[in-house]
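QA checklist item 7 of 12: single-chain prediction sanity check.
[x] sequence parsed
[x] length recorded as 232
[x] structure emitted
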Amino acid sequence: MAGFDKRVSSYEEAMEGIESGMTVIAGGFGLCGIPENLIAEIKRRAVTDLTVVSNNCGVDGFGLGVLLEDRQIRKILASYVGENAMFEQQMLNDEIEVVLTPQGTLAEKMRAGGAGIPAFYTATGYGTPIGEGKEVREFNGRHYILEEAITGDFAIVKGWKADRYGNVMYRHTAQNFNPMAATAGKITVVEVEEIVEPGELEPSQIHTPGIYVDRIIQGSFEKRIEKRTVRS
């Protein structure tokens, strides 16, 4: 069974093969469930001209936000500019191409890409700037626009637990975009908090089967809170 062992021992090995100009699909929502160490490795490698697919772009100085500092991202498909002043400024200055995408549509683009479905029809965005220039069909009296699926050269994902074969569990809301992202990369890399022995994960608890995963690494995480709200 050794040939099925997906574990790697370093983040350098985990992101081996990433090059400038590639498309990277990143799981996470805000700062919840983001592959923070894999992102840091991309920054360290100083690759540029990246297309990034993610719900948002982290915050200033953390998450995907660190890739904005050295202009490593050329284009991003996202549903939310979020609490990131640098992202906002680069977008307003036309220093980065931003394709704003409805959140559910973005999730389905990843899921469809992973399922081998090249495109799908959705009512979301019809009659708005989102739908401009896209094919329109009518089904049962309602109009739908054609949206193309997304695949990436790399998918980077944050899990909770995994076994050596790449079967992954996510913790609570940290599932968010991670399961869809994990299916849509030519190379899928998952960083987790704990790698357990085979058989410790109940089959019914596994969210991403190992067939989708190419590399798995155990890391430690800051888990920064994006916006802390407490009672007065």
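[x] summary fact logged: The helical segments are 11-14, 36-45, 65-69, 85-92, 103-115, 178-183.
[ ] second reviewer sign-off
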